[in-house]
Amino acid sequence: MGLRINRALKFFLIAIGIMVVIGLIGGCAESSKALSTKNNTKTNSASTPGNFVPWDYRVEEKTVGDLIGVDMTLLPDNQLLANDENYATGDKVWTMSYMNAEMKTDSAGRADVVLSTWTPIKSYKTKAAADADLENLKVLVDTSVDLVGVYKTESSGKFREFAVITLPSGNEMKQPISEERYIKFKDKKTVKVTLETVHDYENYDETMAKFRGWKE
Length: 216
Description:
It comes from Paenibacillus psychroresistens. The chain has 216 residues and is an alpha+beta fold. 28% of the residues lie in helices and 50% in strands.
């Protein structure tokens, strides 16, 4: 009788042990899944969606390649563009290409600019016609901007001076300056600069301003 009880107790303890082991394994699996999900979430949210702004234009001479329906390829890059002027294969044309930029902010609040590839948007028979459009899309403007402040850094006994300004877009930008400008700007709230205003070719009122120099 005692032997039967001992055997029953032994089997009972073994069964409990197996259940405990299974529970521990399941708990480890759940913990691993939770950590994996947490890590993936952090990785996926490393940056926030950005805003696309016009960034630059350029005029280039290209050679017409294959004609594909109402389109044509442009050599040497084989980019596709509408053949609005009924060009023939081998013709020399001038093209306007466009680049935009995605302005993003990462999880630490740092700004990040991602530039697109160059995309042809229009063809011209003459460079003069292309340059005329380019002058309307990239305009130099002399204006005043807010001066956030000036500061200097020192390394191995050498000093460097910087000014921080606020562009019309609201973005702050740091520029190296001379010691003479550092002294001149110290007590200023605004400064005169030259900006290049880049217009979007589809929505002219959408612009991006770039710093192109000091006017004082």
